[in-house]
Amino acid sequence: MDSDEDTRMSDTEPAMTSSKGKGKAVDLPAPDSDALPWVEKYRPVTLDDVVSHKDITSTIERFIAKNRLPHLLFYGPPGTGKTSTILAVARLIYGSDYKKQILELNASDDRGIDVVREQIKQFAETRTLFSKGFKLIILDEADMMTQAAQAALRRVIEQYTKNVRFCIICNYVNKITPAIQSRCTRFRFSPLPILEVEKRVNSVVEAENVPLTTDGKNALLKLSKGDMRRALNVLQACHAAYDIIGETEIYNCTGNPHPSDIETIVNSMLSDEFTASYQMILKMKTEHGLALQDLLTGAYDYVDTIELKPHARIYLLDHLASTEHRLSTGGSEKIQLTALLAAFKTAVELSAKD
């Protein structure tokens, strides 16, 4: 009886331990690179692959060559290569096994004062054999950390400088306390030049055989605004949804109003009678699913191409800004639309006066 029970238990034990494990699935196939999002599939591997920012990458390479890498603070808009740069630095220092030498915490992780005092401190205290002198802690989207956590972090940065280098990544540097800023070497990642985004988009289009038209590419580059992540995500979404990707497909996929719709709306506000223009805009908003916020952004760009007298242009731009602010604080779209329409009518009258 006992021997049978032992046999049954020994049969079930491996299954139980493998199912518990560390929360990881067992015997899953390796992820196919074709199934990866293009943002990850074409993420730079080396510092030479990082688009633009050659001044930053060359400076960091010199730090590494002299073994004098300081604590780093990367800041700038999203999609400009901050995380890609530090991961390329980790590969350069530690080789292909770099993940064992770094601790990466994102805004999605709990990064309160307890994590700084326990997890980061514990990682910083331990030194691994055969490492190249220090480990790397990457705090991504650090501007989301609480002030208390940042206060605790500044002491940890000083205390474990022998073992660890910190790389703090954020979008808004003013949300990082001055005490932490002063302990780091700051690098600003500006929005990527359109030509650099175009080069990478062209290489992805060629590698993936994407049927992208010239006007579609121009629309994609315009909407990306120097954000490589946005450009590649929109391109992949459009490739999945459409056989041929033109300007209309790009605008449909992103939900942005088409320039021709903006032109129609602005011209109507300038020339049509108030009620007729208001009804036409409401109809277009309903049919095309347009938000007033997006119409404001498009109208701002289009107003640059219209001939208006300086004082009329100033008046109109001021009201565009006021309308956007009131929308952001929860203003009614219908009321703000009528206010915007009134501002355009007043601008026309101001422009007509001598």
Q: What is the number of beta strands?
A: 5
Number of helices: 16
Rg, Å, rounded: 27 Å
Largest sheet descriptor? 5 strands, parallel
Record the strand order, biggest sheet: 2-3-4-1-5
Q: Could you state the oligomeric state of the chains shown?
A: single chain
Query: What is the chain-wise order of helices and strands?
Result: HHHEHEHEHEHEHHHHHHHHH
GO molecular function: ATP binding; ATP hydrolysis activity; DNA binding; DNA clamp loader activity
Keywords: ATP-binding, DNA replication, Nucleotide-binding, Nucleus
Region (Disordered): 1-29
Biased composition (Basic and acidic residues): 1-11
Task: Give an overview in words.
Helix content is 58%, strand content 7%. By secondary structure, it is an alpha/beta fold. It has a 5-stranded parallel beta sheet, sandwiched between helices. Helix 5 packs parallel to helix 6 and helix 9 (214-224) packs across helix 10. The longest helix is centred in the C-terminal third of the chain and has 20 residues, at 333-352. Mean pLDDT is 85; it is low at 5-30. One of its GO terms (molecular function) is DNA binding. Its main location: nucleus. It is found in: Nucleus. Belongs to the activator 1 small subunits family.
Task: For this entry, give a set of tags.
DNA replication, 16 helices, elongated
